[in-house]
Amino acid sequence: MTVTTAQQLTVPSPRGRCPLDVPPAYQQAAQETPVVRIGLPFGEDCWLITRYEDVRAVLTDSRFSADATRPGFPLISEELRAMAAATRSTDAFVNEQEHLRRRRMLTTEFKAKRVEALRPEIQQMVDDTLDQMIAGGSPADLMADFAVPVGSGVIALLLGVPTMDTKYFQERSHVLLDEAAKSEEKMAAQRDLMEYVVGLTVDKQQNPDEGFLSRLVERGELTGEEVAGSGLLLLLAGHETTAAMIALSIIALHRNPEQQVLLRQDPSLVKGAVEEMLRYATLVQNGLGRVAVEDAVIGGQLIRAGEGVLCMLSTANRDEEVFPGGGHLDVTRPARGHMSFGYGLHQCVGQSLARAELQIALGTLLRRLPELRLDVPVEELGFRYRAGLYAVDALPVAW
To answer: How many CB atoms neighbour CB 222 within 10 A?
Structure first.
């Protein structure tokens, strides 16, 4: 295969008419040149990997590293560069051996059985939050009044964060993940959050409970800094991703009303529908970065050691060879094989919790608010990227 540079392709790339569709340039690359050399915003080059098979190959190949501090690793914004350097102690950016050591401990905390035990508390949190939104009257902002409080509340529950402190880390994590925020604002927010989580970890050593931080401390296999780093990562990643996915799912159903009817008629479809939502409205639109540590051939193209790659989860999730008709939402589709949680060694460790939250949140919204609808045209919604996640600033709804 001969691969040429797609000079017109940028990351992020302009979107088409439907805000939930993969940008046309990515779709074209997937169809014509699935492994393509592109330029990044800082003048560096990397390889864009767009097919499902090739994405999976990279994410399971030990010749590609997820260490974002390695030379050649593709980071598409200064904010992500700063975050990679500053969160070197967290699981997202450590090298593979260190990652394996920590992941073994974290996986225990996110076993399906343990997550299932949390379902009643998550359901109660969802119901209480929805009660407050309904009491406030229609219309409402589903992001501010439901999605963000639910995401934050569940992470607080998991970590053992006092309820009174959830607003504190909501505000600071919002700044840290907001690409429009100034560098000094981000650094201040990150410093505040790290200090908070370190203090919380110390408190758990003296006053243990059943939360995630206490259990990590009790195991005694991580330093206090490592426990705090793991807690900070979960705090940042957990509530932002879930909140964004709840909103994108409601938008997807609004644009596909026949699928919403199916879910209302048969609530048993919600579990599978969540997988289809994750596939169809992929949160990580600008790819998962990796850097080659040895020469490797992917999709017929030689990728040399030191060269970065971006694995496009969004195009992989719509690969017609794997998901026929993948450009369409189908809540009856068996979509469990999607790439939205990544794949391989660095696959999202919190995916069981995310699935439970989404199933409960969407199921409850559909059941309790049968007339729920967007209160503004989709074209007026403020879609944006924040730390690589595709989301909306606000989601006005009525019922």
So the answer is: 18
3-state secondary structure of 261: helix
Q: What is the pLDDT of residues 63-94, one digit of tens each?
A: 999 888 888 999 876 656 655 555 554 444 44
Would you tell me the crossing angle of helices 183-206 and 166-177 to the nearest 10 degrees? 140
Q: Kindly state the tokens that stand for 176.
A: 């840290």
DSSP 58-122: HHT-TTEE--TTSTT----SHHHHHHHHHTTTSTTTS-HHHHHHHHHHHHHHT-HHHHHHHHHHH
Residue appearing with tokens 């189908």? 330
Structure token pair of residue 186 = 């981000």
Q: How far apart are CA 46 and CA 52, in angstroms?
A: 18
pTM given for the model: 0.89
Q: What are phi and psi of 76, to 5 degrees?
A: -95, 5
User: What is the 8-class DSSP label of residue 284?
Assistant: B
| Phi and psi angles of residue 236, each rounded to the nearest 5 degrees, phi first | -70, -45
Domains and CATH numbers, the chain: 24-398 (1.10.630.10)
pLDDT in tens, 284-330: 988 999 999 999 999 999 999 999 999 999 999 999 999 999 999 99
Distance (Å, whole) CA 22 – CA 144: 26
**Whole-angstrom distance, CA of residue 188 vs CA of residue 186:** 5
Indicate the residue type of 238: G
